[in-house]
Design brief:
Layout lengths: L36 H10 L3 H12 L5 H23 L1 H5 L3 H4 L1 H4 L5 H29 L5 H18 L1 H30 L12 H16 L19 H29 L8 H6 L1 H35 L9 H22 L3 H30 L22 H14 L11 H5 L6 H16 L1 H8 L38
Helix pairs in contact: 1-9, 1-11, 2-10, 2-11, 3-10, 3-11, 7-8, 7-13, 7-14, 7-15, 8-13, 8-14, 9-11, 9-13, 10-15, 13-14, 15-16, 15-18, 16-18
Length: about 500
Amino acid sequence: MDRQGPHNEPGPATASAVLERRTIDVVPKNERHGRTRDLFTIWFSANLGPLTLVTGALAPAAFGLSFWWSLVALLAGHLGGGFLMALHSAQGPQLGVPQMIQSRGQFGTVGALVVVLAVLVMYQGFFASNLVVGAQSLREVLPGVPQDAGIVGGAVVSLVVAVVGYRLMHRIGALSSWVFGAVQIAGAAWLLCGGLPGDFLSRGGFSLGGFLGMVSVGALWQVAYAPYVSDYSRYMPASTAGVRSTLWCTYWGTVLGSLLPMTVGAAVGLAVPGSDPVAAQTGLLGTPLAQLTLWCFALVTMLTNSMNLYGAVLCVVTAVQTFAVRWLPRGAGRALLGAALCALSAVLALAFAGSFMDRYLNFLYVLQYLLIPWTAINLVDFYPVRRGHYDVAAFFTRDGGAYGRVNRPALSVYLLGIAVEFPFMAQEMYTGPVAAMLGGTDLGWLAGLLFTLPAYLLATRGTRAARDAGSPHTDPPGITDPLLTSEGPAGPDDPISPDSPTGAAR
């Protein structure tokens, strides 16, 4: 197997290669490139797909909200959840590794597998969901193409983009932000300026449970990106991609990119109740604009799914490398793993296309219960506990170095965070006692967040004390605090620098 550390890789020429060679290993400084504004375009464009529209339509269809209450719920969910997501993005340039590798700093090399496997299921679920709605969009503009063929075709295109890798996804994101964004803004303007029924604003209503349910959906939409958002900032130089600029470019890209189609989705759900929001585009927008919108939907889905597949491959590599520490596949290995995962998601999409909406909403709820405690632990550990200072080399060792193989306190807090959510859950198969008292209002995600944040701070009080005392593992001298400046860590003695002797993956 081709296994080379950062010092043995080719120099700057590698950055211009067409096919990305790296998987989960550290990105050295001589391969860093890109601008933080690229983060705005990739996250803005990635959210312009039909699945975002369908998710927005849940506000009236599943929760019975009026347009204005739908908009308020979407704003609350995306503005809050987007900030958590963007805080993860800011970790990428500082550490130069994928998000799931960085989670070894909280859970240990083996302990992190609990989260890695949960995130892998998430990738497969979103990949399959996007295949369904992408194929629906394609069928609307090309009626002669069967839905099954659209699913398979979309999967193949996503696979090719994911194998080529990071640079191509950023370039597609930059182009599609302008083109697809303009088309969707035109469609939204057409609808909101006269393309909707006259009694549109009087439809729907308000319930506390429905409102909080849609806030949860919006927040989860953003948090679901957290396990891989830093994968798209890790190639950027820490000297130019500081915490603040990385955070805000990612934040506004993902929030604005999500709110635009979700607002339209809520409007469509009220205008044509009970219909397929994707198919309803033709009747509401008219033929030329609807055709453009649906083509954009189909193409954006392929970009979004290439990102899902890229992240899924990194998760599989992370899981295997936990036990085979010298195994780091390159282009051919990523292609084989991607093909296998792509085939699995295509089978799921073909199997569940007929009952998509019900299964999708249940999938979202399960995700929030698993991801909220993880995101709380990861952010608390990176910011107030360790202040961005990690021994990245230890992430790749068999024993996990300072972080060990299993961090029992972190895993205990994570599992307790999930357990705390149960009384507040309100699902079709199970409703907790607190949720029942609140009339079926699901507050599981909020309970998990409010418990996990202070619980993890309490569990790591020894780590913070060691850091404040100048422990070499947590606060080595000579490192610029990435939270206090825009440059982030730098310097030849920085233990998280891939150019230093201890920063090389091993």
